[in-house]
Amino acid sequence: MEKASTPTSASPHVILLVEDERILLNLYTTTLERAGYTVRTAENVAQALEAVKDATPDLILLDLLIPNKTIDPLDFHKRGGFLFFRKIRGDKRFDDTPIIVFTNLDSPDDRKQAKEFRARDFIVKANYSPKDIIAIVEKELQ
């Protein structure tokens, strides 16, 4: 396995990975940590909001289909990832925080909604390898 480059800052960048599929959460947590990043994780909207309560990550990788017990995850306007987006984009602390949508959804409506929330990128998981994700993260954090 090829090791990705280490971030150049004195302290590692902190990435919040919001993903409810445990196998992907573990895969990308390990991949990012091996690349030298500090990774915080969340598996649902409540955990994601708690993770940013007292600290702002340097970058957020956000799945759109994350659980929220009060909504139907298949309802376009109420998907957990969009709810999280709406809540943090309403907080000035996150105005400059890059958020990369990291999902298997790929509809024009999803892309449009993500763009309205100022997503920096829209990544369809199935189309990218872990190595590709590291390159995208590194580019975004330069």
Explain what you see.
The chain is of the alpha/beta class and 142 residues long. The protein is globular. The longest helix is centred in the first third of the chain and has 13 residues, at 22-34. Strands 2-1-3-4-5 form a 5-stranded parallel beta sheet, with helices on both faces. The protein contains 5 helices and 5 strands. It has helices spanning 22-34, 45-51, 80-89, 108-116, 130-141, and strands spanning 14-18, 38-42, 59-62, 99-103, 121-124. The model is unreliable at 1-9 (pLDDT under 50). Strand 1 (14-18), helix 1 and strand 2 form a beta-alpha-beta unit. The chain has a single domain, classed as Response regulator (Rossmann fold).
Tags for this model:
alpha/beta, 142 residues, 5-stranded parallel beta sheet, Rossmann fold
Chart the SSEs and their pairings:
Layout (H helix, E strand, L loop, with lengths): L13 E5 L3 H13 L3 E5 L2 H7 L7 E4 L17 H10 L9 E5 L4 H9 L4 E4 L5 H12 L1
Parallel strand pairs: 1-2, 1-3, 3-4, 4-5
Summarize it:
The protein is of the alpha/beta class and 142 residues long.
The coarse silhouette is globular
Strands, count: 5
Helix content: 25-40%
Query: End-to-end distance, in Å?
Result: 24 Å
User: How many domains?
Assistant: 1
Radius of gyration: 14 Å
CATH architectural grouping: 3-Layer(aba) Sandwich
Low-confidence stretches: 1-9
The CATH class = Alpha Beta
Reported for the largest beta sheet, the result is: 5 strands, parallel
Order of helices and strands: EHEHEHEHEH
State the CATH topology: Rossmann fold
Let me know the CATH homologous superfamily.
Response regulator
- Beta content comes to 15-25%
State the secondary-structure class: alpha/beta
Strand order of the largest sheet: 2-1-3-4-5
